[in-house]
Amino acid sequence: MNSQKLTSLIKEMTLDEKIAQLLQLATPFFEGSKDEGQITGPLASMNISEENIRNTGSVLGASGGAKEAISIQKAHLKKNRLGIPLLFMADVIHGYKTIFPVPLAIGCSWDLDKAQQSAEIAAKEAAAAGVHVTFSPMVDLVRDPRWGRVMESTGEDPFLNGEFAKSFVRGFQGQDLKNNRDSVAACVKHFAAYGAPEGGRDYNTVNMSERQLRESYLPAYKAALDEGCEMVMTAFNTVDGIPATGNVKLMRDLLREEWGFDGVLISDWGAVKEMIPHGVAEDEAEAAYKAIQAGVDIEMMTSCYVDHLKEQVKDGKVDEQLIDESVLRILTLKDKLGLFENPFRGADEELEKELIMSAEHRQAARELAVKSSVLLKNDGVLPINKEKKIALIGPFAQSGDILGPWSFLGLKEKAVQLYDGLLAKLDSSLLFTANGCDIETGSEEQFAEAVKVAEEADVIVLALGEASEMSGEAGCRADIRLPKVQMELAAKMKKLGKPIVAVLFNGRPLDLHGIWDEADAILEAWYPGTEGGNAVADILFGDANPSAKLTMSFPYSVGQVPVYYNHFNTGRPQGAPDAQERYVSQYLDIPNEPLLPFGYGLSYTSFEYRDVKMSAATMSASKPLTVSVTVENTGQFAGEEIVQLYVRDVAGEVVRPMKELKAFKKVALNPGEKVTVEFEINEEQLRYHHADLSFKSDPGKFIAFVGPNSRDTAEMAFELVNE
Questions:
Q1: pLDDT class of 62 with cuts at 50, 70, 90
Q2: Which of 29, 184, 436, 556 is the S-S candidate for 595 at Cβ 3.0 to 4.6 Å?
């Protein structure tokens, strides 16, 4: 259906029908859904009429698979006067039913191809189940691990987040939404700067300069849109004092006009009405007015539009053309998905059974979980000899709660528990287990059982972490250490004098006090997904060599937060040659630096970096330079190394970060093998936003850094000169 036909269709629609296209409702409102009619609590307070339901444009969160999606769509098409199909949207974040590691973990893989594959598989399963749009990727830059939703981002670096954003969009959408029924439309979120709430508290105020917004927070959203992402979701937070959902400058001026985005803009759940408690709208009518003026096309799960826009159009307060523009964007997306030709699109019960949780999909999830698990510490304990007796202790020893808080349809009972993963590689007589404690509570009886079991073993594996509800949306924590009872368990295990390996299941960087000194080795498994137990076992026994590197710094203490590698210097930096002892920017009681920096991660082998060279000491816009380094595997295991390039602008018009990631390459090397890795530095990479927000580079001195992480680098100076 071409744009002319869509425009003609809009002309046939009544004002009520058009406004209802802008409404998104959850499945209980729809005939044919498995939870039809279960409209209670907040849903009931919406007072949605039968006419609204008959004309609404999209469905939120259908979870009954292809059968339910087909049933709802059939019932809807019988009642909708013009036969306009529904859009089905859902939170398919890191897998549909085959659950991959959480996005923060995927980020730590630094593997853009595997990230894309995970999105492709999620799209295949979701499309077969009748989903048309996924609310992913979330590309919010994150620097505060107290915020629960850091698990849904890929980390603290704008460049790396942008690269992953593009990979996820490519994976979800493919090349042809209309003809590729294995794809779904992607929705980048949360626009904008949702990852910077004050105090690390969800939904809280965001306050920053426009220059910082453009420099650090906007690039990843732009990368997703440049890759063709079809939808944008508004953030809950304020941007420059105005909630994003009613922010004309952000949504109309920047997103629509400056960036040229003409896709669908959707609010987050209830965000239109939330402008009232924010304090920028007196009532729902004013909230509706501000949202439509800002260009919000779909209102998710509040009824401000359907209750008030018609009257505002009749009164001349709202131009009906604004509503027509939103409807056209919604219908255009439906057309891109091929819904007018086939309203059931990829929904297929038989294909759904074949694809979901298939062996191929589970194997891909296992491989990515291996590549996403970060070895934080290893004092010679790992890998474990399979002939050793192992005591598996801790609340995650036999837990399926390893999928993460945003595994919308993941089944914990289908997740491979760590115990089962270990048992698959061991004689059962060599594996002993006890919980030792629960996630946040414990008893002396549990401790005693754990001690008794551990005394029988050669090696203790402690399976510790956060319950999934302790992370994710509304999962914010002021104390980001392991729960106290788990630290007590670790202390009791330490007293036994046996080697201890800690495996952590969690959704954020932790303050590792209480486990860092107690454990001889620490593996950060995050929430690894459906195949988590198998993937961790692969690593613990050396059947796989860990290669992941952190994309979010681990603080020494929560008192440092936010702590991140690409920070500014100060006029009184600690450690400068002429620095005073006291009157410098420092803490008196803890280090300034994080415990573990961005880009950090260990391997079972060792890599030596040498012969760092630069092709020239100067460069210009037409003459880039090359940085090269020889990397050799000097250990006993084959392994992968992520080689990282950083740059610092020594003196800018505005203060520049101490280091900025500009490129990375992953190399696979056998023992004794070496390779020369080359990076090009061009003028475009040296551009930044100036005081007037112009985006350009400055001639002058720069430093290039090459190394295995952001801290341990070799450096070389170079100069950018005018032509």
A1: confident
A2: 556
Partner residues linked to 511 by β-bridges: 481
Which residues are paired to 189 by β-bridges?
Answer: 138
Q: What does the pLDDT look like over 101-137, one tens digit per residue? A: 999 999 999 999 999 999 999 999 999 999 999 999 9
pLDDT class of 192 with cuts at 50, 70, 90: very high
At residue 228, the 3 state secondary structure works out as coil
Is the bond preceding 567 in cis, omega lying within 30 degrees of 0? no
Q: How buried is residue 175: exposed, middle or buried, by Cβ count under 10 Å (0-12/13-18/19+)?
A: exposed
Q: Is the separation of the CB atoms in 510 and 464 below 8 Å?
A: no
* Residue 464 φ/ψ, nearest 5 degrees: -125, 170
The model's confidence at residue 642, banded by pLDDT at 50, 70 and 90, is very high
* Cβ atoms of residues 558 and 480 within 8 Å: yes
End-to-end CA distance of the chain: 51
515-548 pLDDT per residue, tens: 999 999 999 999 999 999 999 999 999 999 999 9
Q: What are phi and psi of 401, to 5 degrees?
A: -85, 60
Sign of the dihedral through C-alpha 698, 704, 708, 714: negative
- Give the model's pLDDT for residue 388: 98
Whether 268 is a known active-site residue: answer yes
- Average of pLDDT values for 641-666? 98
Please answer whether residues 464 and 482 qualify as being in contact, where contact means their C-beta atoms are separated by less than 8 angstroms.
yes
Strand pairing report for 521-524 and 374-378: antiparallel
Place of tokens 């330079």: 625
Q: Provide the pLDDT for residue 308.
A: 98
Query: What is residue 495's DSSP assignment?
Result: T
Question: Of these residues, 111, 140, 144, 268, which one is catalytic?
Answer: 268
- Can you say whether the dihedral through the CA atoms of 170, 173, 177, 179 is positive or negative? positive
Percent of the chain at pLDDT exceeding 90: 96
For residue 242, what is the DSSP state? E
Kindly report the three-state secondary structure assignment for every residue of 663-709.
EEEEEEECCCCEEEEEEEECHHHHCEECCCCCEECCCEEEEEEEECC
How does 360-385 read in b/e, with b if 16+ C-beta sit within 10 Å? ebbebbbbbbbbbbbbbbbeebbbbe
| pLDDT for 579 beyond 90 | no
DSSP string, 246-294: G-HIIIIIIIIIIT---SEEE--TTTTTTHHHHTS-SSHHHHHHHHHHH
Buried b (16+ CB within 10 A) or exposed e, 614-628: beeeebbeeeebebe
Above 90 in pLDDT, residue 643? Answer: yes
What tokens appear for 610 in the block? 């040498």
